[in-house]
């Protein structure tokens, strides 16, 4: 893993000094070959021959931004060319990204900050649960409330733009280092999570930035490599190219971005790597074609930090804002100049770039700014952010910044209580033999593992650390904790109420090689709680799916002698669990990265104050070798374009793959236990679209999110759910569809298309509701270039996980094909 990190970072050291190279449109020439067909396939998709998509479409404000767009136009009309260049080019300053002020127009600039679980470069801010935990809640309301609370903290610190949320990576590979920042490899679940999070952020008055667009499914090789030659670098190898066919693009990777745009996201961050041969940020098919034309995106596309690889090509390809603005590794070599900046004025003056294109870039930037009312009473930047920002320290600033906010303002409010509640709702109970949990006033508790206690290396961790519980990974998606309730502290506090004895051993090396009986002499504890963790970070991919620090050996060592061993994981994502079926492992909890109240959230579930209602947002296989779609690591050749990642598995990622190949798994997608039990009643399907459902959607004028006909509800499905246990509980009813046989080859066996979380008192019955929209019932037809509802009979399956689907019914939206066997 460390080697991978070095490899990835080495590509960031130097970039070419600005020169004619900044205007090299060579990448554009390559675009004819960019939408290549996956090798060894016979799929006839348009990507072999789709032409480049130019010009970049102008924003119209359609979908509710019309008034704001007019204000943006009026603003642009007053700008000089130099000011226009400033508006689209980042500068060093107090925030992670900075657009400078134009005081004569009363414009205070734009402050952009990471990230998806906290405002990262800030003091006195909260650390919320990570995306993988948020997805585990399967709870729309929580997803929204989390997004809202985060948005309020960004705004109170003076950040106009939150670089959040993440749906790229989607989670093609279990190993990707940033899966935890995003939600789930299922595009439907992630799509809902994106939409709710963005609504939350933007209802707080902060711009959301869904990222990274698109195909950013691994960390290593995400940047080109450079040979150092004094201060000027010579490019040695281009970044990896994610080669994705058209159908896979639409049905998996673009899907949640469509939700994001539908939710009116202000901005989209394009990714580092190449996509079908061309860098994502200058990929006109992706940015102009998919995002701005097909999805009707009205906001602006900003580059990831240093992912701009050209000037004119990027501008023509649809990039609207260059971040952080400078050239060089991560764009941090501020002195080296910029692909944008002064080059924009030159390009406009010499006629290379029409000023109308630059105007549209700024209109796209300023429209959401006005739409969210950021021109009125927006809090000034907290000066402490400038001190914390190692990315562009004060010594690099060349412009003035209005840091008029209160210094070290405490923006946490009552979010601690919210984070505790959310963390508990994200906790997934995977195994619970003999009703081990909830704990019932045990006389003696033994706590094991280096994940149980307090962090020993400070509250802002960019590197893996041995001792201390994990609530976030490393990189730009992390957060700066102000406090952390670790599991051991919370257990001690709760155990004191029962007078329980709590003893702990936190050194994994010691536990793994010790006869644990010597640790707890003379009497065995009633329960042994083993805490395990798995780190992941940006710019590196995971080397293994096992837990870190010999965690498997720790479980073996404890379970050998403790007949009531409860394992808790705090992991960035998928782990294999070779000890899952050990008879002494009586309960397993996957708690992921639950945020600053981690211990309290866990204790609430361990003791039954909260029913475990988290459900797996991915599949846990029996063996690591069962997973497909590995990270590309094995390219030994050093040709300029040799780093290629072929998404040959197409739609078969995560449960789609295991279902298509009938592979048995340990815990399936959607699985999780409650302390109660639930049963389903009779399913009811109501057609709300009338009898004339057509295969192809009506072609309505595009709105944000694409053709509005795709978002129309065609069916309302409902089903009674009864809590049949003797305790109150919470469950997640899930609906999956199977498309008719007339759908093209490669169509997944089952796909999630609805979920509803219900809290029910013992004996109570509630109703789970699912809305099926046109897109939910369609596949992407590569020839028609449209979403198509296949003719014939669909199967709807409802249950409590992707492999526990006791209720099925059929549906035939479009007649004309054979019946399908249930
Ligand atoms: C690079 C990361 O990929 C992106 O997610 C982040 O927002 C920027 N750096 C800024 O820190």
From TrEMBL:
Pathway: Glycan metabolism; cellulose degradation. GO terms for cellular component: extracellular region. It is found in: Secreted. Residues 731-802 form the Fibronectin type III-like domain. Keywords: Carbohydrate metabolism, Cellulose degradation, Glycoprotein, Glycosidase, Hydrolase, Polysaccharide degradation, Secreted, Signal. It holds the Pfam family Glyco_hydro_3. It catalyses: Hydrolysis of terminal, non-reducing beta-D-glucosyl residues with release of beta-D-glucose. Its EC number is 3.2.1.21. SUPFAM superfamilies: (Trans)glycosidases, Beta-D-glucan exohydrolase, C-terminal domain. It is an enzyme of class 3 (hydrolase). GO terms for molecular function: beta-glucosidase activity. Residues 1-20 form the signal peptide. It comes from the Eukaryota. SMART domains: Fn3_like. One of its GO terms (biological process) is cellulose catabolic process. Beta-glucosidases are one of a number of cellulolytic enzymes involved in the degradation of cellulosic biomass. Catalyzes the last step releasing glucose from the inhibitory cellobiose. Belongs to the glycosyl hydrolase 3 family. This is Beta-glucosidase cel3A.
């Amino acid at each position: 893993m460390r080697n991978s990190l070095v490899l990835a970072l080495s590509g960031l050291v130097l970039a070419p000094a600005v020169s004619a190279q900044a205007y090299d449109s060579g990448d554009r020439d390559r675009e004819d070959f960019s939408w290549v067909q996956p090798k060894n396939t016979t799929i006839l998709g348009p990507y072999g021959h789709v032409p480049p998509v130019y010009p970049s479409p102008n924003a119209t404000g359609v979908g509710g931004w019309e008034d704001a767009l007019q204000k943006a136009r009026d603003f642009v009309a007053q700008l000089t060319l130099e000011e226009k260049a400033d508006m689209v080019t980042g500068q060093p300053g107090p925030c992670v990204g900075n657009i400078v002020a134009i005081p004569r127009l009363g414009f205070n600039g734009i402050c952009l900050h990471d990230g998806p679980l906290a405002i990262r470069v800030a003091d006195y801010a909260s650390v919320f649960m990570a995306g993988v935990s948020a997805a585990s809640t399967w709870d729309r309301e929580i997803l929204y409330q989390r997004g809202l609370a985060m948005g309020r903290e960004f705004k109170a610190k003076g950040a106009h733009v939150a670089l959040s949320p993440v749906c790229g990576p989607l989670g093609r590979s279990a190993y990707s280092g940033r899966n935890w920042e995003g939600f789930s490899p299922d595009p439907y679940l992630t799509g809902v999570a994106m939409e709710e999070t963005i609504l939350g952020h933007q209802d707080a008055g902060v711009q959301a930035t869904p990222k990274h667009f698109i195909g950013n499914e691994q960390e290593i090789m995400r940047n080109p490599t450079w040979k150092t030659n004094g201060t000027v670098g010579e490019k040695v190898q281009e970044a990896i190219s994610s080669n994705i066919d058209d159908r896979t693009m639409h049905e998996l990777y673009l899907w949640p971005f469509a939700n994001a745009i539908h939710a009116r996201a202000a901005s989209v961050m394009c990714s580092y790597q190449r996509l079908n041969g061309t860098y994502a940020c200058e990929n006109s098919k992706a940015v102009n074609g998919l995002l701005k034309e097909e999805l009707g995106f009205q906001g602006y596309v900003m580059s990831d930090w240093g992912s701009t690889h050209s000037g004119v090509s990027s501008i023509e390809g649809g990039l609207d804002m260059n971040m952080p603005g400078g050239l060089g590794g991560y764009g941090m070599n501020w002195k080296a100049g910029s692909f944008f900046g002064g080059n924009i004025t030159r390009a406009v003056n010499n006629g290379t770039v029409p000023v109308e294109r630059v105007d549209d870039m700024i209109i796209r930037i300023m429209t959401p700014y006005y739409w969210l009312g950021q021109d009125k009473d927006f809090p000034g930047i907290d000066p402490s952010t400038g001190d914390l920002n190692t990315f562009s320290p004060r010594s690099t600033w060349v412009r003035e910044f209005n840091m008029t906010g209160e210094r070290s303002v405490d923006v946490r409010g009552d979010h601690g209580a919210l984070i505790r509640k959310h963390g508990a709702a994200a906790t997934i109970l995977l195994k619970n033999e003999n009703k081990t949990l909830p704990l019932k006033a045990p006389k003696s508790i033994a706590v094991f593992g280096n994940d149980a206690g307090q962090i020993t290396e400070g509250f802002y961790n960019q590197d893996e650390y041995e001792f201390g519980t994990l609530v976030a990974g490393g990189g730009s998606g992390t957060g700066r904790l102000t406090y952390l309730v670790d599991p051991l502290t919370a257990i001690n506090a709760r155990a004191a109420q029962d007078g329980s004895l709590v003893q702990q051993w936190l050194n994994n090396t010691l536990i793994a090689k010790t006869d644990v009986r010597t640790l707890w002499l003379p009497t065995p504890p009633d329960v042994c709680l083993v805490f395990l963790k798995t780190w992941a970070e940006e710019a590196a991919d995971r080397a293994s799916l096992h837990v870190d620090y010999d965690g498997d050996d720790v479980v073996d060592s404890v379970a050998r002698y403790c007949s009531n061993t409860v394992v808790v994981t705090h992991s960035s994502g998928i782990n294999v669990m070779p000890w899952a079926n050990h008879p002494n492992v009586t309960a397993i909890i996957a708690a992921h990265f639950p945020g600053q109240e981690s211990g309290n959230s866990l204790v609430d579930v361990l003791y039954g104050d909260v029913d475990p209602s988290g459900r797996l947002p991915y599949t846990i296989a029996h063996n690591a070798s069962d997973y497909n779609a590995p990270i590309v690591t094995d390219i030994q050749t050093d040709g300029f374009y040799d780093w290629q990642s072929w998404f040959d598995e197409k739609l078969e990622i995560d449960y789609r793959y295991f279902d298509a190949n009938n592979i048995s798994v340990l815990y399936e997608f959607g699985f999780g236990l409650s302390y109660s039990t639930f049963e389903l009643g009779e399913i009811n399907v109501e057609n709300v679209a009338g009898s004339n459902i057509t295969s192809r959607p009506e072609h309505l004028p595009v709105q944000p999110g694409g053709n509005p006909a795709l978002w129309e509800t065609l069916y309302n499905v409902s089903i009674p759910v009864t809590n049949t246990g003797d305790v109150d509980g919470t469950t997640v009813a899930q609906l999956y569809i199977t498309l008719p046989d007339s759908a093209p080859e490669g169509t997944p066996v089952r796909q999630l298309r609805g979920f509803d979380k219900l809290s029910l008192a013992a004996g109570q019955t509630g109703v789970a509701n699912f809305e099926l929209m046109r897109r939910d019932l369609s596949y992407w037809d590569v020839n028609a270039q449209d979403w198509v509802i296949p003719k014939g009979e669909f199967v709807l399956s409802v249950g409590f996980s992707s492999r526990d689907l006791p209720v099925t019914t059929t549906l035939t939206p479009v007649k004309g094909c054979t019946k399908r066997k249930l």
